[in-house]
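Limitations

Structures in this collection are predictions, not experimental determinations, and the ligand pose is part of the prediction. Treat each record accordingly. The example that follows, with heme C as the small molecule, is included so readers can see exactly what is and is not provided: the inputs are given verbatim, and the output is the predicted complex.
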Amino acid sequence: MKAQLLPQLFLGAIALSALAACRGETSRETPIVPIRNMYKQPRYNMQGESAFFKDDGRTMRPQVDGTISRETETDPELAKGRLADNSGYVLTIPKAVVDEFGGMAQLLDRGEQRFGIYCAPCHDPSGGGQGIVVKHGMQVPPTFHQKRIREIPDGQLFATISNGISNMPAYGPQIRPSDRWAIVGHVRALQVSQASVAQKETP
Ligand code: HEC
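Predicted complex:
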């Protein structure tokens, strides 16, 4: 019985492989999809009209309070800390961000608070690199009070927070851009406050 089925199986396998060979080739014909599953489903087009929402009859929704607009990500200076012509990092915190907080003092307050939440566990509250996580075995991060890190541009600090660096994870996905700038401000404040320590440590 089994032996009789073999030729059929063989032919079937050839037919299948011939069909499979057609995959990947471009064609202008409408594709034949026997099992349509979720190919077609009701959806709204962008900027379309809809009677579903009572407020303005459109499918696009107003931005929800507390969410981040993707548009913040299109300005290279604010979103990446890079100059618009991509020639390097911005040297100082963009004025638009300071204005957003209503002044440098407010920015620094926010930065201190965010630093305490996101950075101090590893970098410790003074930025020396002896945070609680390090005491549990994590690699010791470099102190912020060394010449190299004191001298990197604000935009590069911003990019380090956003993208992470070697063993440090990226915080871009967790911290909104203006808060990352506020943290940059706080790191700068720490560096100024520890300047005398830094001079002793790095001749
Ligand atoms: C989970 C621990 C951890 C957290 C949280 C963390 N870092 Fe780091 N950070 C590190 C480690 C480890 C390094 C060293 C990475 C390396 O070079 O291997 C580092 C390096 C750095 C550097 C030096 C970059 C350079 O050019 O060498 C800066 C600046 C920095 N972190 C800033 C921050 C700031 C600001 C935050 C808060 C948003 C933060 N880090 C959060 C672990 C952490």
